[in-house]
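*** Backbone structure tokens ***
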Amino acid sequence: MPDDIKTDDIKPARQGAAKPQPAADAQCPVDDWATDYDVMDAGYTRDPGPVWDELRERCPVAHTTRWGGSFMPTRYNDIQELAKMVPTLSSRTVTVIPPDPDLREELIAELKAYGTENPPITADPPEHSPFKRLILPFFSPRAVAGYTQMTENLCNSLLDQLEGRETCDGAVEYAQQIPPRVIAFILGIDMARADEFTEWTRELLELGQTQPRLRQEARHKIRDFFFEEIADRRANRREDVISQLVDAEVEGEKLSDQKIAGICNLLLVAGIDTTWSSIGSALYHFSTHADDRRRIAAEPDLLPTAVEELLRFYSPVTMARKVMEEIEFQGAEMKPGDKVLMTFPAANRDPSVFDRPNEVVIDRQQNRHIAFGTGIHRCAGSNLARMELQVALRLWFERFPDFELTSEDGVTWAGGQVRGPRNVPIRLLV
């Protein structure tokens, strides 16, 4: 997802509201997760399940003043209901960590000069629908089928580089290499710059969460890159997504460069971090669960069902919503300007909906997970993500049916907006 900022999001906070904390303060231990949770806590990032279990029992909706303050529901039905509260809960702000007030003047100047709209993800009705209709064809089942061969070729080339090796980093050398190149292929941008796209995305959504200046610089890099690409397409039309956006109309009007850049920003960033996190989580799971690994190797037709279960258990994305009018929900009094975290990963561990919710059941038949969100903002790229996951894992198992984690200490996790492993050290067994 993009780093969305609106002018009113960076005004001085309302009296009594919390200011975003610097990274050093984030290390203060949590005494009570119901009233002081920390989405950047290292233990929570590594294994949030126990926290969600505690909160479901103790309170329907937790609250914190950390990171600008927010409410966090953990129950499946509550999150489904909150997702329908549009536009009372607005998508104009979807980032978990808010902008740093110390950068307020710079951010306002930037907004006036360039804008940072990223429709449809940051749009409320009625603006949302036409932009959602605009991008859906890029990710339809038919369109995704057209990207499959390229994805297979890419995965095979990456696996070729691992042949003959005893160890590798499944996250860095495989999972993180796939989505940047696939989305570059779809957008029609230079796949050779995939490492740059990866760097920008990490600076924006991962490292930049606690380093505001780094996040701002990443936003500049992405914006300037797409403005150059758009100018090129206006002069030299091609058969790619950016050219189609240049030609497109919404409500009878051509899109501005700012709107096109915002959509491209969304497609690039959302198409990278979320999917590589899911692929990396899957490799982590199979490297630590020998029975599941052996079963997939023996029953490859089970893979699509297993992918859905891995999406449920390792759901990567938490989104935010901005409260636009005063409401009371499950005893929580929410006022305009407050933030609500749409914790889809917590919903997917709710025992009232899922049997054995804290286990990966790779042949689970009843699986109403909401890893791709729910409501009008459900992920438009879900077909693409599923295809990448299935292709990446199918081809991996064809080459390396037996593998294991070399060291749990070598696994690192990113959290906050998108949770997933950034390092998965694997021993390739033959």
Confidence is low (pLDDT under 50) at residues 10-25. The radius of gyration is 21 Å.
